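Q: what sequence does this backbone want?
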């Protein structure tokens, strides 16, 4: 993303106007510092947040009251995900644009869902990054079509997930226990001994599980539970 850069000749910086303050939250030090330097060349008051914990960063950004926060999605373990930090920054009144190399549609959609004003791809040439930063500072939409498409994909994925999970929510507590023990490799007798119930009751629970999950064998029930993440 960061390349040799000369201030654009068509950009005139009026020193009498207050500078646009931009805080970059990114633990990739070289990239972040380079971007901050380039933004300063463009006439902005840009710097990299020094905090190494979520509380420190939120406090630092709140005290600075920037016009814009550029937030990376993948941060250090001590800070956590940018998705976790995003709502806290928004709650403090910051305008946030994600700047990331992430390509996961679901994660990018969640950024928009939580309130990020846009997403800047780190793979863009520097001029493209600067143009998007300028648009964000001007309050212009950055990638509206992408936002709508990603949110539509996220809604569709959640509908599919809901349909897959629904049968498992219909299981009784005892049926869930039986299914878990089937996954652990216990026989019907082993389940009866473990749960202190009769063999006939175990068989009744297993029949009910198969019907509710729409499968025809215990192995298929366990496989379905694993496929949807109900059993890890």
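A:
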């Amino acid at each position: 993303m960061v390349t040799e850069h000369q201030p654009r000749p068509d950009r005139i910086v009026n020193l009498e106007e207050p500078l646009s303050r931009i805080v970059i939250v990114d633990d990739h030090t070289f990239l972040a510092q380079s971007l901050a330097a380039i933004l300063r060349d463009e006439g902005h008051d840009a710097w990299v947040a020094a905090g190494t914990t979520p509380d420190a960063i939120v406090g630092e950004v709140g005290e600075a009251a920037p016009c814009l926060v550029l937030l990376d999605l993948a941060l250090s373990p001590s800070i956590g995900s940018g998705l976790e930090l995003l709502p806290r920054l928004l709650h403090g009144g910051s305008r946030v644009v994600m700047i990331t190399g992430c390509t996961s549609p679901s994660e990018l959609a969640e950024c928009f869902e939580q309130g990020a004003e846009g997403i800047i791809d780190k793979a863009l040439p520097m001029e493209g990054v600067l143009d998007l930063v300028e648009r964000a500072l001007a309050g212009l939409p950055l990638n509206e079509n992408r936002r709508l498409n990603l949110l539509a994909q996220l809604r569709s994925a959640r509908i599919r997930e809901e349909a897959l999970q629904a049968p498992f929510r219909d299981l009784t507590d005892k049926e869930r226990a039986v299914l878990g023990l089937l996954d652990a490799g216990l026989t019907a007798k082993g389940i009866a001994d473990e749960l202190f119930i009769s063999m006939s009751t175990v068989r009744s629970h297993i029949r009910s599980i198969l019907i509710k999950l729409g499968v025809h064998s215990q192995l298929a029930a366990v496989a379905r539970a694993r496929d949807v993440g109900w059993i890890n």
